Amino acid sequence: MYEETFSSFLKGVPNNIKAVSDQTNVNIIMGNEAGDADSIISSLSLSYVNFLKQNDSKTDNISVSMPLVSINRNDLSLRRDASLLLDMAGVDKESLLFLNDEVFTKIARDDKVKKSVTLTDHNKLRSNLQFLDEYVVEILDHHQDEICHNHVSGESRKIAFDNKSALAGSTCTLVTEILMTNKNLKEVDAGLGLSLLGVILLDTMDMSKEAGKGTDRDQKAIDFLMKHTNWSALKLDEEVRGKIMDSDTNLPSRSSLYEYLRDSKFDPQFWMDMLPRDALRIDYKRFESKEGNAPFGLSSVLLEVKSLVSKEGFYEHVLSFMKEADVNLLGVLTMKIVDDKPQRELLLIGKKERARIMTEYLMTSEAASFLDLVKQEEKDIDDDVVSVYFKQGNPKGSRKQVAPVMLASSC
């Protein structure tokens, strides 16, 4: 058993960074710009897993890990599922490093600091961090390969996506697979095990067949974590313990843990109380062609379109957000759960010509046919902007599948 737990390791990161010398390499590990639970936990957990592996190998490499929560510090409260998991894992959230912390921005911008970058849950640096391209040395992801950072190859480039489908439902599955190869590991730290398990269950919707997100790799990761985690060391308050743990086995109840996290994330009142701008940015990603043109954004929102557009000033917020994000086409992918099954819709908003060309492509292209989109309504927002509302028949068509289709359109 390692003396350094997941939570104590993360708490010590800021002091480790402060002690960096000129000869020390700083390995920045960061998730994608949406900063969802998978991005946050995969970054933090990979850092700890690498630490365990480095300790076992007794390597002489002088390297300090900087796991990054890839959103601004004030935005963590909007990621309720990730925040809950970190609390249950005993992680001191105040000690974590965030995208807008001076510690990160200073190291990222200082050419004199030796550094490397590991990308988790994405394989292309966001546009405002492109200056770090030459420092990217590793990619761990389950989205379509955007063919960037091509100097990263072989075992350093692990992208679990093939033939329009993810080969793993979660990047945390890939982190768990690395953990599974550690022959010196006798048991998994409780906080680490709970964090990884919780995200995999969330991302696969507890291996729901209807959602179609879970794979054999996810199931093997779940089984490993359930069997090998030191659950007896998990410190939970009694209320939470009663909600997620099986009293007979003292192991997590998979369905209860999933539902507890899911309900925190899908809470309708939480989404209804949110300002339109926050609803759009809470899980947003920007996409552009390899050449850097035709950018568009995709926001994932856990609220049906009707409720979303009923928010006061919704379209004013949309136009302001699009201007801030520097895109003239925005897709809002909505999802709600009905009888434990996902239902999806798409709201496309953009400059009239571009939005209508994209609409035509989505309705007629063979590449988009699997989404089973049915156009419901088109509405002029102003003289230049239109919104198009679709019902989506295929509940398995998440942003992971929609983004490559839109990228391929060149619209």
TrEMBL record:
Key word Manganese present: yes
Gene Ontology CC annotation, any one: cytoplasm
Molecular functions (GO terms): exopolyphosphatase activity; metal ion binding
Cofactor requirements of the protein: Mn(2+)
InterPro entries: DDH_dom (IPR001667), DHH_sf (IPR038763), DHHA2 (IPR004097), DHHA2_dom_sf (IPR038222)
Residue ranges of domain DHHA2 in the record: 258-407
Keywords: Hydrolase, Manganese, Metal-binding
Protein name: DHHA2 domain-containing protein
Organism: Chaetoceros tenuissimus
